[in-house]
Amino acid sequence: MERLGYQQKYKIQGKVNSVAAQEKCVMKLLLYHICVNLPLMIGSYPVFKYMGFTSQLPLPSWNVVCFQILSYFILEDFIFYWGHRILHTKWLYKHVHSVHHEYATPFGLTSEYAHPAEILFLGFATIFGPAITGPHLLTLWLWMSLRVIETVEAHCGYDFPWSLSRYLPIYGGADFHDYHHRLLYTKSGNYSSTFTYMDWIFGTDKGYRKLKALKAAEHQYDYVEEKVPKTD
Fold first, then answer.
1. What pLDDT is recorded for position 215?
2. What parts of the chain have a pLDDT lower than 50?
3. For residues 77 and 193, is the Cβ–Cβ distance under 8 A?
4. Which ranges constitute the DSSP H helices of the chain?
5. Where in the cell is it found (predicted)?
6. Phi first, then psi: what are they for 201, rounded to 5°?
7. How much is the pLDDT for 192?
8. What Rg do the C-alpha atoms of the chain give, in angstroms?
């Protein structure tokens, strides 16, 4: 979409990443998935198995699946928020988290572009819920798929009319997280992964909310200017 200039009117930032920057992201992601994520998945299997993980029939009911996935989202968001705030301390940001922030204008694939130590550190938030509940393989696959879709959407750089954040007030989405990437690490805020209430409770979204209020006021002013007839 970036290369073709498609749907530019919904792009949050005007800047477009170069082809070289995109290719760098893709190549490092392949390396991280093979050398970090794959060993992590293999190594965590005994823990999942011990906690009751199964791939056998019967399949779990949709009530169980939905409850578990909702619980995973809430747990992940809570753990991620605090882990992310820790990564924004001076030393950890400089030596670890700054890798993820190399892209001030994020696009979908940058969602998993990070230092290997960060992948392990924040990856704990993603696997914690399944690790303590031992879900069915179907639930685990569905959870991981939804989590990846969510983080890719948050980094996509586009605020579409159909974005979930427009219909679910506590959902962050692309506009919420894009703000986090645009600012200096000491002032960014918006640390949550999926929802917005943790940032609201702890006051780490004040800059974002102030900016939104200013934009809304400007939009209202422009609307009034258009409607009021000009006189000589």
1. 80
2. 223
3. yes
4. 19-32, 38-50, 62-87, 90-95, 116-133, 137-155, 173-182, 197-201, 206-227
5. Membrane
6. -60, -45
7. 96
8. 20
At 208 the pLDDT is 92
Q: Which residues lie closer than 8 Å to 144 by C-beta, 6 or more apart?
A: 126
Question: HSE (CB half, 13 Å, CA atoms) of 186?
Answer: 3
Exposed e or buried b per residue across 155-179, where buried means at least 16 C-beta atoms within 10 angstroms of its C-beta: bbbbbeeebebeeeeebbbbbbbbb
Report the distance separating Cα 216 and Cα 90, nearest Å.
Answer: 33
Q: What is the pLDDT of residue 228?
A: 56
Amino acid at the residue 91 = W
The answer to pTM > 0.70 is: yes
> What is the pLDDT, as a whole number, of residue 220?
61
Query: Which residue shows structure tokens 């179907």?
Result: 138
d(CA 82, CA 78): 7
Element containing residue 3 per DSSP (H, E): none
List Cβ neighbours of 2 (8 Å cut-off, separation of 6 or more): 11, 16, 17, 22, 107, 157
CA separation for the pair 76, 4 (Å, rounded): 35
**How many residues does the structure list for the chain?**
232
Q: How many angstroms separate the CA atoms of 137 and 130, rounded?
A: 10
